[in-house]
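Homework help board

Subject: predicted structure for assignment chain

Our instructor gave us this sequence and asked us to write out the predicted structure in token form, then describe one feature. I got the tokens but I'm not sure how to describe them. Can anyone check?
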Amino acid sequence: MTVLWTPEQVVALAPDTKSANNGRALADAQHWLGLGRSDRALWGEFRGSGKQPYQTQIDLSEPAYRCTCPSRKFPCKHALGLFLMYARDADAIARGEPPEWVSEWLTRRDGVTATPAATRSRQEVADPAAQAKRLAQRQAKVRGGIEELELWLQDFIRSGLANAQTQPAEFWNIPAARMVDAQARGLARQVRELAGIPYAVQQWPERLLARLGELYLLLEGYRHLAALSPSLQADVKSLVGWEQSAKALLEDESGTTDVERDRWQVWGRSVEEEDRLQVQRVWLRGEQSCRWAMLLGFAPVGQSLPVECLPGSCIDADLAFFPSNVPLRATIKTRRGAVEQIAHVAPGPTTIAAAIAEWREAIARQPWLELFPLLLPHARLVRRDETQWFVQDDSGDCLAIARGFPFVWELLALSGGQQLALCGEWTGEAIAPVGVLANGQFWGAR
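My token output:
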């Protein structure tokens, strides 16, 4: 089955605005030689300034890209230009058999993706004694850091919250730096986030007190880790700063990994910056399982983020979920068939009240959840005053849209003021839309 991508979806793949603009400029057949397409692939040779044209090819089943140009951006402007031509008018590109250089690339890709984890070449196992020693050293560092942070929290509470707005930057930076030294980067991030609360909202004392309570609960959870369930232990360790390895998850042969096969609707993505690192969340909803899944991606600021699936698409895939009391984070284990477009809203809560009930159930199981995905199939954008927009359902219930969300007018134009299906990240106070389906068109946050 051939899937026709929209130009908006293709532009959303660009690593930055400059690449998107350059891609648009190259989306013209006069720049290309040997354009062609099949059900799976798209290819062409771009006439650049060198002696040999750049060979550009796209695997439409994911999508994936390859170009012989020297660009370090991914996808490069040539791949974007070729993909945009296809998205604008696929029939203008002749069908044909892929040339050898395209077929060889596709064959190599099939060989890589078809190789099961159990048969992959394994690296030499590290010295178990050395591994155990490093693990014990880190555990000791983390425990020391937690004891130090608990004392800081107790002193902070005893002195009262009134002075939080006048504290110098060092008040927050010093304990955060100590957590980095203790190899507890998750705690360092949470301390740095505390610093911004006294200046963020009018009701900052309540917000700050709540976050301090959550942080203290996390520290106590780590101190009593052995008393927790294995899934909650995984949550606590991850929040403190222990890394979760996708490679280890995929290669786990214990038979305990939570794997779900489904048709997954890709409802949108969001990107934030943390410590000069881009963090990308891609949200998927299972059509049969009704489960949420989050694909997490990272890249240094200025570099391209991974593109595993396009917002607005559907993929038939096995997802492996990381251990958690509320399993959300996942990684793609196996993909099947061609990518399709979202044609309907996956089953799930149909009202705001039902969606919030799902969130509350998740919070009861994992009290440190900062974000939770909501999918509202019958939503409408309304405004109560000059500055605040809301999402409203058929019953009249409303959720505030996050202040500063820049695309409200774009969504209004897309929906024509009518109902739309909206997916967003809910913080417990406001929702930030990441994807919308309206009048048969999909919109994804950029």
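Reply (TA_rk): Your tokens look well-formed. For the description, you could write something like this. The chain has four domains: 7-113, 132-240, 246-341, 352-444. That's the kind of observation they're looking for.
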